[in-house]
Design goal:
Elements lengths: L1 H22 L8 H14 L3 E6 L3 E7 L8 E7 L26 H18 L5 E7 L7 H7 L2 H4 L4 E8 L7 E3 L2 E4 L1 E10 L3 E2 L9 H12 L1 H6 L6 E10 L6 E2 L2 E10 L2 H21 L3 E10 L2 E3 L1 H15 L3 E2 L10 H6 L2 E7 L18 H15 L4
Parallel strand pairs: 3-4, 3-5, 5-16, 6-15
Antiparallel strand pairs: 1-2, 2-4, 6-16, 7-14, 8-12, 8-13, 9-11, 10-12
Helix pairs in contact: 1-3, 1-11, 2-3, 3-11, 6-8, 9-11
Length: 387
């Protein structure tokens, strides 16, 4: 396929971009260097319009086709931010920033979309308009939400939007997708158990917050086992248990629990929130303590639209020869906010036999670049064929 051939030619250049981004990771909305590089490259490519500062540090580029009789406008989105992880890959181009690392492959996503933008700016072999979206703060900051709240979809007239993520464990350059709910809603909770502290040798004079909190931890597991229909999905994980005292002979006054809830439907999400609150309050009250629950909703369920998913899968098959059915993912993805505003789809591209994402030894596979770039370009050329 001509697109794949062109990206094979561009591979050394795109790889160089990717490795520079990997060497200089930036976290959340602090993607100042990355955003500046993206904007400068889009300018060099000859994009018709470049706008910075959307969603704080997001960058948007507009590329017009040779014709525009269709009036279609398609958005293509890549995330730019890194993670607060100390890299342990030993690569020549490993992170130069202590405590920051591209451990999820956003350097690869950004480089691939830049590669597609370069090609589309060169050829313009489509009838319509492409909006390339470079988003900060996917890793917990909600950069996608902020770009939408800044009016991005209406400002650029985006009608459909497409996203991509690399996937370790799948063959390099292969694809997988699924319609409907795909990535989970990601909520968090903090529960403070207030008891009555005292001497560990006189437990009868206390209300032991450690014991109360332990019962809360166990009881929370009944949300999955006894409250939610077994055919639905929910994960309730308590990830932090911290007492107000660290002494051997003190029963603490308070215990703070922290954790996350993952769900794949709004109904189960609502039920889980109600049950977390009720279980914490009820268990504490039963044992003479008090619970204060702070339940924080995060990213919503990411839902692929049926028509756009079918199209995205057919494009992937034209690029790699096949597109597999993807599994449900209990991780979160803030592309969900864009899919709440516009029809679209999110696809996985294989990253080969590498460490898992969010692991200090993870690395994006540069061999996946031609397939990823080709998918972006073919989304445009097949959805908006030249008149």
């Amino acid at each position: 396929m001509p697109v794949k051939n062109r990206f094979a030619e561009l591979l050394p250049e795109i790889t160089e971009w990717r490795r520079d981004l990997h060497e200089n990771p930036e976290i959340l909305f602090e993607t100042h260097r990355t955003s500046a590089i993206v904007a400068e490259k889009l300018k060099t490519f000859g994009c018709d319009e470049i706008v910075t500062g959307i969603g704080r540090t997001g960058v948007v580029g507009v590329i017009k086709g040779k014709t525009n009789s269709s009036g279609k406008v398609i958005g293509l989105r890549a995330d730019m931010d890194a993670l607060p992880i100390h890299e342990q890959t030993g690569l020549d181009y490993a992170s130069k920033t202590d405590g920051a690392m591209h451990a999820c492959g956003h350097d690869g996503h950004t480089a691939m979309l830049l590669g597609a933008a370069k090609y589309l700016s060169e050829t313009r072999n489509f009838d319509g308009t492409v909006v390339v979206i470079f988003q900060p703060a996917e890793e917990g900051g909600g950069g996608g939400r902020e770009m939408c709240e800044d009016g991005m979809m209406d400002r650029f007239g985006i009608q459909e939007v497409y996203g991509m993520h690399n996937w370790p464990g799948k063959p390099v350059g292969s694809f997988a997708i699924r319609p409907g709910a795909f990535f989970a809603a990601t909520d968090q909770f903090e529960i403070v158990i207030e008891g009555k502290g005292g001497h560990a040798a006189k437990p009868q004079e206390t209300i032991d917050s450690t014991v109360v909190a332990s019962h809360v931890v166990i009881a929370l597991q009944t949300i999955a086992s006894r409250n939610v229909d077994p055919v639905d999905q929910v994960v309730v994980s308590v990830t932090s248990f911290e007492t107000s005292s660290k002494a051997f002979n003190v029963i603490p006054q308070t215990v703070t629990l922290k954790g996350t809830v993952r769900t794949l439907s709004s109904e189960v999400r609502d039920l889980a929130q109600e049950r977390v609150t009720a279980i914490a309050n009820g268990t504490a009250q039963m044992m003479g303590a008090e619970a204060r629950v702070n339940y924080m909703r995060g990213y919503p369920v990411m839902v692929n639209w049926d028509e756009q998913t079918e199209f995205a899968a057919s494009v992937a098959a034209s690029v790699s020869g096949d597109c597999a059915d993807a599994p449900l993912v209990m991780g979160g993805e803030d592309f969900a906010f864009m899919l709440e505003e516009r029809p679209g789809a999110y696809i996985l591209v294989g990253n080969g036999d590498t460490a898992a994402v969010h692991h200090p030894e993870y690395n994006f596979s540069d061999e996946a670049i031609p397939a990823g770039c080709s998918w972006w370009a073919e989304i445009v050329e097949q959805r908006m064929p030249a008149a």
